[in-house]
């Protein structure tokens, strides 16, 4: 009796429920915060409601090298016209020659990376490569740290910075290596020069829209040590070439000038094999956010190594240097670097306007 009833139930189409479909969480909304018909922004920082943007000169961007967005949505030179007034042949010490990155520290200072190279792939001009510290409470330059020829070398492209106390860690995307800077004394050292962890591999091309991104000479573009992040407690520095893979090293070893190059190299560990990125950001939780160039996506790598896609959108084409603000929102500048004239035989393919997005994620910066 029981077996016949079970057979009847199994034969009943009403008993065979459709497979359960779990709804995927909706992607968070992108909000356009600012846009420009002539400036290409690859960097953003937000301090108490003030939005700062910057971009490299070689992109063909027009306007201030470093700007804040005023109440009408227009970029205004920051900290003043003089710092933004450099022209070929002018003095380079107290002016921005080519800004590649900006970074906001926890003390209200904006750090500006000036590669000193007005042209992509060129050499830093004498006195031009520097780190500039701006006090956002006074809107004044506190100090400029020159990166002399022993630090910013022939072919160097000083790329980005992270700050731990009085120490700054910088990457060099042109000459593979890291730079360790004491912001009190101004003394700088190069470390991990030409090490595998700072050198772009030849077998990991940058692919966008299904094509390999080429340098102006027609070869696959190689970008050496470029993105970097500090762990929330400052104990680890994570870094790698733009194409990956990523490595890590304890900052206590980077801070020790007594270690030989070989001893320091032995402290480097493999960390994460992630695809080519436009930029990264580290949340207080230890979650590591990166923009996947090939997928026009923002992704999160959890401390356990799990990778999740936050949002994928064609408007996020080469997002560079995401920024987490004090309210927990992520800011995404979209410079479309691969579309500038430099990488397209002199004909720009930029889709205007350049846009700056915000996405609310409820993060802790």
Structure description:
The chain is mainly β and 365 residues long. The protein is 5% helix and 36% strand. It is built from 3 helices and 26 strands. Strands 1-26-25-24 form a 4-stranded antiparallel β-sheet, with no helix packed on it. A 4-stranded antiparallel β-sheet has the order 2-3-4-5, with no helix packed on it. Strand 22 (297-301) and strand 23 form a beta hairpin. The longest helix is centred in the first third of the chain and has 10 residues, at 2-11.
Mean pLDDT: 92
Q: Helix segment count?
A: 3
Number of strands: 26
Strand arrangement across the biggest beta sheet: 1-26-25-24
Order of helices and strands: HEEEEEEEEEEEEEEEEEEHHEEEEEEEE
Rounded to an integer in angstroms, the radius of gyration calculated over CA atoms is 23 Å
| Main beta sheet | 4 strands, antiparallel
In angstroms, what separates the terminal alpha carbons? 65 Å
Strand content: 35-45%
Structural class: mainly beta
Estimate percent helicity. Answer: under 10%
Oligomer kind: single chain
Q: Runs with pLDDT <50, length 5+?
A: 1-24
Shape from CA axes?
globular
Topology, element by element:
Blueprint: H1 2-11, E1 31-36, E2 43-47, E3 50-54, E4 66-69, E5 75-77, E6 99-104, E7 109-114, E8 130-135, E9 140-146, E10 158-164, E11 167-172, E12 177-182, E13 188-191, E14 207-208, E15 211-212, E16 225-230, E17 236-241, E18 246-250, H2 251-254, H3 261-265, E19 269-272, E20 277-282, E21 288-292, E22 297-301, E23 307-312, E24 323-324, E25 329-334, E26 354-360
Antiparallel strand pairs: 1-26, 2-3, 3-4, 4-5, 6-7, 7-8, 8-9, 10-11, 11-12, 12-13, 14-15, 16-17, 17-18, 18-19, 20-21, 21-22, 22-23, 24-25, 25-26
